[in-house]
Amino acid sequence: MTERSVTGTDMAIKVLLVDDHLVVLHGLRYFLQTQPDIEIVGQALNGKEALEKIDALQPDVILMDLNMPEMDGIEATRKIASRYPEIKVIILTSFSDRNSVLPALQAGAAGYQLKDVKPEILADTILGAVDGNRMLHPEVTDRLVQLVANRGTESDMSLLTPKEREVLELMTTGLSNKEIAGRLIISEKTVKTHITRIFGKLGVQDRTQAVLHAIKHGWFKGGAV
Predict the structure, then answer these.
(1) How far apart are CA 41 and CA 48, in angstroms?
(2) How far is CA 151 from CA 17, 91, 137, 143, 200, in A?
(3) Are residues 28 and 63 in the same domain?
(4) CA distance 81 to 109
(5) How far, in Å, CA of 69 to CA of 224, rounded?
(6) The pLDDT of residue 193 is above 80
(7) Do 131 and 186 have their domain in common?
(8) What integer pLDDT is reported at residue 7 of this predicted model?
(9) What is the mean pLDDT of residues 162-168?
(10) Of 149, 169, 201, which closes a domain?
């Protein structure tokens, strides 16, 4: 298992479990509470309940099911990514079809695992998410490879959340981080977080490369580097 190295502290990663099946929640608790680097701070039965508990529990990572009543995992992930960009949401589900995978990644998921994943891989996924690494189940990776092969490079944009697209579009107009923050009514720190995620999803190293990538593929009208 990957050793904890990113946080630079001995504090355990705080995890919130979200699933509408109590058996699944009990199983996750049974394994994860044995991991010295992980602390289970709470659980929720749907996305709505998870959102209501975030401020009190302050999790670092949320393990999120997809199909749940009241608010599903994709909607919850989208809201969390928008309101709490510092929190990593890892999807843990039984579904690997394109209608589950792409919307989840578009919503801002920091990882995607299926419920048949080996426990130690799940633990590594949690640790990796905090390090900024996105770990995907092999079936999910295969699905994405197929989609890219079928749709070409413009599918890159489908991996961006709506807010990341807004940030990237404003980047192409030449606005600074401070100006983007003012335009979107978010903090400059949040803008930087979105930009970092954009770099990772597009496979680029800096702002200029990201803007050139967007302009080259005609994602937005106009724009300047």
Answers:
(1) 17
(2) 34, 24, 21, 12, 20
(3) yes
(4) 8
(5) 44
(6) yes
(7) no
(8) 41
(9) 93
(10) 149
